[in-house]
Amino acid sequence: MENKIRILLYEDNRDLREGMTFLLQATPSLQLVGAFPDTSNLEMQIPGLKPDVVLMDIDMPGRTGIDATPVVKALRPETQVLMVTVFEDEDRIFQAIRNGASGYLLKRTSPTEIIAAIHDVYQGGSPMTSSIARRVLHFFQQEQPVAKSKDYDLSPRELEILKSLVKGFSYKLIADEHFISIDTVRSHIRHIYEKLQVNSKTEAVLKALKEKIV
Amino acid sequence: MENKIRILLYEDNRDLREGMTFLLQATPSLQLVGAFPDTSNLEMQIPGLKPDVVLMDIDMPGRTGIDATPVVKALRPETQVLMVTVFEDEDRIFQAIRNGASGYLLKRTSPTEIIAAIHDVYQGGSPMTSSIARRVLHFFQQEQPVAKSKDYDLSPRELEILKSLVKGFSYKLIADEHFISIDTVRSHIRHIYEKLQVNSKTEAVLKALKEKIV
DNA sequence: AAGCCAATCACATAAAGAGGTGAAAAACTC
DNA sequence: GAGTTTTTCACCTCTTTATGTGATTGGCTT
After folding, report:
1. How do residues B79-113 score in pLDDT, each as one tens digit?
2. Looking at the 3D structure of chain B, how many domains does it have?
3. Which domain covers residue A115, as residue numbers?
4. Residue A151 lies in a domain
5. Residues A41 and A114 in one domain
6. From CA B207, how far away is CA B214, in angstroms rounded?
7. Contact, B38 vs B61, CB < 8 A?
């Protein structure tokens, strides 16, 4: 392997940072290009050091790893961010992922596994422990059982009009959009209201959104 | 270990089913309680066989593994469903997870890993390959970068009024709700419209929802 | 063929909402 | 303590929406 994976490390705990530094430097396939206790110079370091993989702690003084992650992805989208942290709560996991992290390891992960995870994330995987994965899946499953949204029996045309309502259009705009008269729009909307059991535009829009009719 | 993990297998391909059957029976910590080529008798088998873990193929004649999964979870929520399949597309992965699957393995996974995954899922983990995990993360990341929602600088009172708008209330109702006159409501709403740069109730509500201002 | 429903349009009235202008008391800021 | 913002209210005008009633056309069903 001629090209080493370029690693950048952010970790505020000195012992951990030095331990990781040692581990990474001892691995021939990796090249540690920097190790810092905070992300205050992130905007310089990412473009300058061009890391392939950033190991990011979450709890750091100043900007947290959660907040730093989207900045990394904005500065250099091809850089993979691997969270390495002690936090196992769904909230932080979720935020990190939403912000662009590609993997999530716990600090108690063994050195061997950390090295493996780095290769993994570099090759397009998303390493995470199966307990983290379970928490991630949890998010999807939390969302309402999706049940089949009640069928309000809207006609195709009515559905189109409803979609336009949800775009925030006025009657006039909807009429123009569909090349029909305002009175026709009114007529459709009357029927929609009856079927949805509402009596204002806002209620119809809210119901359409909440029940995913559109 | 006195209690073996009870396994139920659904797999339409005969060779694969028999191969898996052999593998599972050869593992002392597991007890195979059934192996079927389709899910037509799912409603009888789940309550009858009380599996701890169901290995579920996706592509089966009749009801697919995707459709069978929520039925399993409904019949016996404590049963863990592990998808074992050849499909790696985000759509199927997503559907399986939404329907309650707790893990997702590819058929090319080694026997050792499959056995490990069964124990893993039984103990509350969510085994999946890191490439599957990457696809799962992808869903989260597709959603808008969340950035910090723009600050429209609404005053506390304006925010309350906006919340009422989002409940679908009329001016009159909002006035009653907050013990203020309709004219005051109008006044607040005018300011809200200015700040949000909209000019109708529906637009305000949509913007509030979309940008998570409320 | 008769009947039903979807889609179109019209006219009319009443209620709700949008926009202009002004203003006063209270709270907050500098 | 002077100036700004927030919250409250009023009145007036115009537009948009909501609702009633009715009617025509074309497609689908029985």
Report:
1. 999 998 888 887 888 888 888 899 998 888 888 99
2. 2
3. 5-142
4. no
5. yes
6. 10
7. yes
Integer-rounded Cα Rg, in Å, for chain A is 25
Same domain? For B165 and B128 the reply is no
What gap in Å lies between CA B198 and CA B205, rounded to an integer? 10
- Token pair for B122: 């039984």
Neighboring chain A residues of B134 at a CB cutoff of 8 Å: 102, 124-126
Q: Which residue has the higher pLDDT, A129 or B54?
A: B54
Q: Tell me: the pLDDT tens digits for B64-76?
A: 899 999 999 999 9
Q: Counting Cβ atoms within 10 Å, is residue B34 exposed (0-12), middle (13-18) or buried (19+)?
A: middle
Tokens of A56: 């990011």
Give percent helix, percent strand, percent coil of chain B, each to the nearest 5. Answer: 50, 15, 35
Final residue in a domain of this structure, among B142, B168, B184: B142
- Tokens 């002690």 belong to A86
Output the pLDDT for position B147: 47
Q: Is A61 exposed, middle or buried (0-12, 13-18, 19+ CB in 10 A)?
A: exposed
Nearest nucleotide by C1' from B155 CA?
D6
Containing H/E element for A25? helix A14-25
A137 and A160 housed in the same domain: no
Task: For residue B151, tell me if it sits in a domain.
Answer: no
The token pair that represents A162 in the structure block: 């409803």
Q: CB A136 to CB B131 under 8 A?
A: no
B31 and B135, same domain (yes or no): yes
pLDDT-derived band at A92 (thresholds 50, 70, 90) equals confident
Token reading at B188:
């607040």
In this structure, the answer to whether residues B107 and B163 fall within a common structural domain is no
Distance from residue B187's CA to nucleotide D9's C1', rounded to whole Å: 9
Tell me what pLDDT residue A169 has.
Answer: 93
Q: What is the pLDDT of residues A98-140, one digit of tens each?
A: 888 999 988 888 889 999 999 999 998 888 888 888 888 887 7
Q: Against a cut of 0.90, is the pTM above it? A: no
A70 SS3 class = helix
Q: How confident is the model at residue A160 (pLDDT cuts 50, 70, 90)?
A: confident
Chain B contacts of A133, Cβ < 8 Å? Answer: 103, 125-128, 133, 136
Q: What is the pLDDT of residues B123-135, one digit of tens each?
A: 988 888 888 888 8
Cα–Cα distance measured from residue B61 to residue B64, given in angstroms and rounded to the nearest whole number: 7
